[in-house]
Amino acid sequence: MEIEAFNDRFSKMVENVINNEVLNQIGDEMVSSIQNRTRLGDGVSAMGSVKSKLAPLSPNYIRMRESHLQSIMWGLARTRLSHLTLTGQMLSSIDYEISRNGVILKFNNEKALEKAQWAHAGYDNRPQRPFFFLSNLDQKRVKLLLEEAFDKYLLENFN
Q: Which of 51, 54, 84, 136 has the fewest Cβ atoms nearer than 10 Å?
């Protein structure tokens, strides 16, 4: 009986701690991390792995980007760096939703999702450029946010 009471109390505590405010904070952090890392030219090849440089651009693609610099490229983009940012639309479309089980990363439009899938899988003669994973450091940051939320809850309710 005592174990059941403890489990019930612990479950209620978790529900109180991991609320929409905390989940929104985690979602914002994950989206920002993926966007910033990718714009700097780094990707992550699998969930929890170390970030690494995205595959380099081909000379022909660099020339195309240089010729279109003023008309289409995202304002801070560098033409020779592989950072999955031509117009900025795909990375700006990264979003999240809160579910019963946590935070789900997604794209808020179909075209951005297609571009992301091409980047991850590679196609024709284009190399894979995986980026839509959380790195080991991202996961540590999420863990830290959860620990901070638990600490705050414990201080407010058991002091």
A: 136
